[in-house]
């Protein structure tokens, strides 16, 4: 099982292949935002990698980050936990002014991923 370390929250064993956005919420108990429901449309599920950043990226994530001019961050809805990783959660429900974190993300990456090298 991969180990997910979340700065300020702890270290957790997560199932291999679980979406990072779901691991943050369900396993680490972090109030990670995902306003678009994990569809790679809003960037509210941003995280910064401290260690273990995947070397692949979905074209949906790559294109959205580029369109928004964002660098140094990744979308937790667009990756799965395949190995040990350490992240810093950037977008949380607390202090956001939103009524909830967003629609629940599906178990699989949406839209269907097309992977490219980062």
Structure write-up:
With 118 residues, the protein is of the alpha+beta class. The protein has a single domain (3-95, 107-117), classed as Ubiquitin-like (UB roll) (Roll), CATH 3.10.20. Helix content is 15%, strand content 23%. The protein has helices at 20-27, 59-68; strands spanning 3-6, 10-13, 46-51, 56-58, 74-75, 85-89, 115-117. The strands form 2 sheets. Strands 2-1-6-3-5 form a 5-stranded mixed beta sheet, covered by helices on one side. It has a two-stranded antiparallel ribbon with strand order 4-7. The two termini are 24 Å apart.
Lay out the secondary structure.
Elements: E1 3-6, E2 10-13, H1 20-27, E3 46-51, E4 56-58, H2 59-68, E5 74-75, E6 85-89, E7 115-117
Parallel strand pairs: 1-6
Antiparallel strand pairs: 1-2, 3-5, 3-6, 4-7
Structural class computed from helices and strand pairing: alpha+beta
Helix content: 10-25%
Q: Return the CATH architecture.
A: Roll
Query: Strand count, sense and closure of the main sheet?
Result: 5 strands, mixed
In total, the number of domains comes to: 1
Q: Counting H and I runs of at least 4 residues, what is the number of helices?
A: 2
Lateral strand order in the biggest sheet: 2-1-6-3-5
Which runs of at least 5 residues are low in confidence (pLDDT < 50)?
Answer: none
Find the count of extended strands (DSSP E, 2+ residues).
7
What's the CATH first level?
Alpha Beta
Overall pLDDT confidence: 97
Shape: globular
Could you give me the name of the CATH homologous superfamily? Beta-grasp domain
Please state the CA-atom Rg, rounded to the nearest Å.
13 Å
Spatial separation of the terminal alpha carbons: 24 Å
Approximately how much beta-strand content do the residues carry? Answer: 15-25%
Order of helices and strands: EEHEEHEEE
Question: Under CATH, the topology is which?
Answer: Ubiquitin-like (UB roll)
């Amino acid at each position: 099982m991969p180990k997910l370390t979340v700065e300020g929250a702890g270290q957790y064993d997560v199932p291999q292949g679980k979406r990072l956005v779901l691991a943050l919420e369900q396993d680490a108990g972090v109030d990670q935002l995902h306003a678009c429901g994990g569809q790679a449309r809003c960037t509210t599920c941003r995280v910064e990698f401290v260690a273990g950043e995947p070397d692949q990226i979905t074209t949906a994530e790559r294109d959205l980050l580029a369109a928004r001019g964002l660098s140094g961050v990744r979308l937790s809805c667009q990756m799965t936990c395949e190995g040990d990783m350490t992240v810093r959660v950037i977008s949380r429900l607390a202090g956001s002014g939103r009524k909830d974190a967003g629609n629940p993300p599906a178990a699989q990456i949406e839209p269907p991923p097309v992977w490219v090298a980062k």
